Structures are given as structure tokens and as C-alpha cells.
Amino acid sequence: MFRRVGYFIQCGPDVLPAMSLLGRSVHPRMPRFVILRHEFPSGHARALHWDLMFEHGGSLRTWALSGEPLSAMEIEAELLPDHRLAYLDYEGPVSGDRGSVSRWDWGEYQLESATADAWQLVLHGTRLRGSMTVQKGVGSHFWRVSLGAAPTTG
User: In sequence order, which residues have a C-beta less than 8 Å from that of residue 18 and are 6 or more positions away?
Assistant: First the structure.
């Protein structure tokens, strides 16, 4: 699908895989991720946490991490409802007096494998680069997020 934008022609993502540029094929971009530091007003029932969000199927698959995602560690996480894609680029107040968010890390990721209970990924972020596993706990509604043996943090 093409549309005219000023003097330029813009094409939709359905056209990109078939295009080439100077003999090189142009691939669609990798899906994006963001980690938001989510702070709440004092006295709120929820504590500070980090929202881990992966662009997937037109929305953001989201987990609330109980701790800051640092290198070579495992973090307990809670699966949250999917969020809007707007959060990929958002910083600021969250509606409903639910505090505010700031971007802690962002970038692209490669999904190595995915099942209903586990995701294997490779992150290409500004802070985190390397492998990550998001896996549901046995008999629990909580998940575990494991950062690879030595992902790079910036």
C-alpha cells in the first residue's frame, strides 16, 4: 500500500519485505521493547516496580518486575494485561492517579522461541544487550525473568 506524502511516496509495512535498495534487501524492523520505571504516589497500595513491555501482535505484552533488571539475575514478575503501543515512547503521569513512568531501557528484540509459558529473547537495548528468558512459575501466577549469564549493561 502506497500513499503520497508531499513529494514523497510512503509505503506500508506489507510492501517492505518485497523492496530492495541498491541490490540489498530491506527487512522490516525488529519488534521493540521498553522497560519503564513505574513510581506510585506515597500511600499507594503498589510499590515501585519496572514494567517490561514487548511489542507483540499490535499491543505490548507486559510484566511488572519486582526489582531493577540488572545483569545476570533472576527477578519475580507478574503478568499484566496487554498495554497500548504508545507506552513504547511514553514518559510521564499514568492515568487514574497511578503514578508516573520513565524509560529505563528501550530497544529492539529478537524472539528466539515462545510458548504460553515461556519466552526466549535476545535484547538489543540501550542498557541491556543479551539473552533473556521470561518463564511462568510452576503452579503459580508469577513469572521469572532471567537475564543471560553476562548481558551487557550500559
Answer: none
Examine the pLDDT at 26 and tell me if it is beyond 80. no
User: Which pTM was predicted?
Assistant: 0.77
Please write the tens of the pLDDT for every residue from 46-70.
889 999 999 999 999 999 999 999 8
DSSP string, 38-62: EE--TT-SSPPEEEEEEEETTEEEE
Alpha-carbon torsion, ordered 126, 131, 137, 142, to 10 deg: 0
Q: How many CB atoms are located within 10 Å of the residue 106 CB?
A: 17
Give the angle 86-101-57 at the CA atoms, nearest 5°: 30
The cell 513510581 sits on which residue? 39
